[in-house]
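Input structure tokens:
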């Protein structure tokens, strides 16, 4: 049985800003069910402490960059039997709100110090430098916030195996060069082969350059980040380590996202009762103050209103698509320029476009169930979850052929429609014209009720459970541990 220290800055329901929180809240229980001995390590944000419930202090951990020791609090990840460890260090984590941003939306100025504290505690646990008897044979780190751990463990012969997962390479943890000195890091790590990146300190390079194995959250993204277009300046390093890089597709919480049991829906349904889905469409039209029409195609969009997600492409395409009399429901928040543009589009097309700025989990479920199709035109997408939710809810997705979208959606070409494997609409170019053409293709297919129903049912048959992904991680743990010995 592998003993795994799972280090992350987010894990649902304790802390979540995006897909990282979803993955790290679901993967440890799935690994635990398969027999792994898991310890989930997370910063003790105030919200995390509240949600975690009963906690007890199990160790005081001296730190290299602070005179104030960290306290290790132990509990259980809610809804599972995974042991939870929270790193309680008031100077770093006793602040309300977003894990990384202050009230004005800017990164906390001491983020480097905060997550260096977190890495320091992970390092102490990995090396047995605490009073906790349990010691891992694998340390699985996630994204830049944990990047120092593989780098600091690398010189030690008695260290555990290290795995580093890239959830989004665009977020790298870059800080001014002087931060390197402030954190009292070993001088040997200030090198272009280590943590230095064009004169800055890069946390993520610690994971990329030193972990025994690298993973990303989809096979296609693993290939994409080895190219200049998607590599964010690190494609050379990733090509150099390509033999250590594996893409493992994320799963989804199939209990939480299940139209047959979803408590948020006006009408629950399944593949055997797909006709009931229409009640959710009418309820969504009413909720979003759109004309109620069961035959009028309704498109859903959910996500951060940022350029990466392609919401600007949809804005540019909508004037052409409006003539098709489709409706569009948008849920998301992000850059103010996009929020304003979407509000303006709603004002121009009040009977076709409905926008909810912000995030609402229950509404997200109702959009997945109520929409006829789901639009996800991302410029890049390491994995993506909403397209998998859409498939599960019988809501064929319209996606760009990138990252995890390419790995999860099969385009409705004549041959795939004929053999029953098609699950959605896939397009290539990141332009409003290409998006409009893809949506038009979906609307044309929607008018063919027989083929559209077959498309929806094919999506509902897909298996995106975490158990499948967890089995791949366990196989990777086994291979990497054998090679490390």
């Amino acid at each position: 049985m592998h003993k795994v220290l799972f280090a992350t800055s987010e894990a649902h329901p304790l802390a979540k800003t995006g897909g990282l929180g979803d993955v790290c809240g679901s993967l440890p229980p799935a690994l635990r069910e398969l027999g792994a001995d898991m310890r989930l390590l997370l910063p003790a944000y105030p919200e995390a402490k509240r949600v975690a419930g009963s906690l007890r202090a199990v160790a005081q951990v001296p730190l290299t960059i602070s005179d104030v020791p960290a306290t290790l609090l132990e509990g259980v990840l809610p809804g599972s039997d995974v042991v939870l460890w929270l790193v309680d260090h008031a100077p770093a984590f006793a602040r309300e709100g977003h894990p990384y941003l202050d009230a004005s939306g800017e990164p906390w100025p001491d983020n480097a110090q905060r997550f260096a504290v977190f890495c320091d505690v992970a390092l102490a646990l990995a090396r047995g430098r605490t009073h906790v008897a349990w010691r891992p044979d694998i340390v699985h780190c996630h994204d830049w916030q944990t990047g120092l751990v593989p780098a600091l463990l690398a010189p030690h012969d008695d260290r555990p195996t290290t795995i580093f997962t890239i959830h989004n390479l665009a977020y790298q943890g870059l800080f001014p060069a002087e931060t390197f000195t402030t954190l009292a890091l070993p001088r040997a790590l200030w090198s272009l082969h280590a943590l230095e990146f064009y004169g800055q300190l890069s946390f993520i390079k610690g994971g990329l350059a030193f972990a025994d194995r690298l993973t990303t959250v989809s096979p296609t993204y693993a290939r994409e980040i080895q190219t200049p277009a998607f590599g964010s300046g690190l494609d050379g390093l990733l090509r150099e380590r390509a033999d250590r890089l594996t893409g493992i597709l994320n799963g989804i919480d199939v209990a939480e996202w299940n139209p047959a049991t979803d408590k948020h829906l006006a009408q629950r349904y399944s593949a055997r009762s797909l006709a009931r889905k229409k009640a959710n469409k009418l309820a969504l039209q009413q909720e979003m103050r759109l004309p109620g029409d069961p035959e009028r195609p309704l498109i859903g969009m959910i996500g951060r209103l940022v350029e990466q997600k392609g919401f600007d492409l949809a804005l540019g395409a909508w004037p052409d698509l409006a003539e098709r009399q489709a409706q569009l429901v948008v849920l998301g928040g992000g850059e103010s320029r996009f929020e304003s543009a979407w509000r303006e589009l709603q004002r121009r097309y009040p009977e076709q476009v409905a926008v909810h700025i912000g995030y609402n989990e229950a509404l997200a479920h109702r959009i997945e169930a109520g929409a006829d199709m789901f639009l996800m035109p991302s410029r890049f997408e390491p994995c993506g979850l909403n397209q998998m939710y859409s498939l599960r809810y019988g809501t064929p997705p319209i996606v760009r052929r990138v990252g995890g979208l390419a790995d999860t959606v099969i385009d409705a070409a004549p041959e795939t429609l004929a053999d029953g494997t098609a699950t959605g609409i896939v397009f290539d170019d990141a332009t409003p014209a290409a998006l409009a053409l893809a949506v038009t293709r979906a609307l044309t297919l929607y008018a063919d009720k027989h083929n559209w129903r077959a498309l929806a049912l094919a999506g509902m048959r897909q298996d995106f459970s975490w158990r499948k992904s967890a089995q791949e991680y366990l196989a990777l743990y086994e291979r990497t541990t054998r090679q490390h010995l």
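The mean pLDDT is 95. The first helix runs from residue 19 to 33.
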